Structures are given as structure tokens and as C-alpha cells.
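How it folds:
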Amino acid sequence: AFGKRYMRGLTSLVTNGSTTGNFTGLQSITTGVTALGNKLSTATAFGGGTTIDGSTSIGYQDIAALYAALDPAYVDGAIWTMNSQTRAYLLGVTDTLGRPLFTPNVTSGGFDALLGKRVVLNQYMPNIAPGKIAVQFGDHKAGFLWRQVKSDLRIFKLTERYISQGAVGFIGFARGGSNVLNPGVPPIVSLTQAAS
């Protein structure tokens, strides 16, 4: 229970940063592409059709553009990050030939690959909305530094302090920080939804 709660809090800090400045979050990475929405269709090729607003949708060309925006040096270790609601949306997105973007994994029973790269769910990533970064792609080991001071999460059991109440107390303690790394060429790129 401590570990799960600790990891959820840590994931929130690593994603969104902290107000104290000791955590720089992944959401601070704005290098990448702006979503255009699902503009590729047969009708569009002939000068007609409808255009879906890029502030509230993601199309095949957005994912392809984000993939292309990452420097090839980082593609081997790259992963996609998004929340489960964004993944659910992308399950319905197809390429220009009608093939789904997501490849179901028959051995694990999940949709864990997008254009051949692993998808990692992060529930602290925002939903698809104007001006938000709903999808990131890159090598997080090369583009993000997480540092923990001394050891991992430490848990202290306080038996004597609450003995008069017939209870036992626990305190969890950890120190750490994070920073986004950019060695000249960004190892992580973001898909930013267009402003409404």
C-alpha cells in the first residue's frame, strides 16, 4: 500500500513537476509537433471533406509526424507515453489505408505497441484538450534524470507513540528530484494539441 501510494505521488511529480522546483516534469517538454487532427481522408484528397479540429483530436498524420520529429539516434530506446483515455481514443484511429495504429499483442492480451514501439500508460498525462500535451515519444532514459537521495522509500513503524490508543503508526519518507535533459537534440518530443 505504501509503495503504490508513493509511486503514484512520484509519477505525478515526474509528469507535472513540483511547485518547489525540485522536480521538473515531463510536461515541460514542448519541443515536437502540434496536432492537426484527422485531416487525411479520401474526400480531402479531392478537395472536399470535413476537417476535424486538432485541438480535440489526434490523427494518423499527427502520430507519424511525432515519430518523425524524434532524432533517429533515440528511436531504438523510444516509448510512447499517454493516459488510458488517450489510448482508448487512439484505438479507433487508422492510417490512410484503414489499418489501425495500435497492434494488439496476442501473447499479453493488451494494446501495448504503437507503430512498433511500446506504449507506457501514465494516468497523470492530460486528456486530449486544447493546448495540452497528451502524447509524448522518446527515450526517457536519455532525456530525463531522476535522482533519489540516499536510499529508496523508507518506512518507519511507530509502536510506542500510539500504544495508549491501541494503534500503530507508520511514516514513509523519501527524498528526490528530477530534471529534463537535452543534450543538443531533444531525446523526448511532445504532441501538443492546437489551441482552441
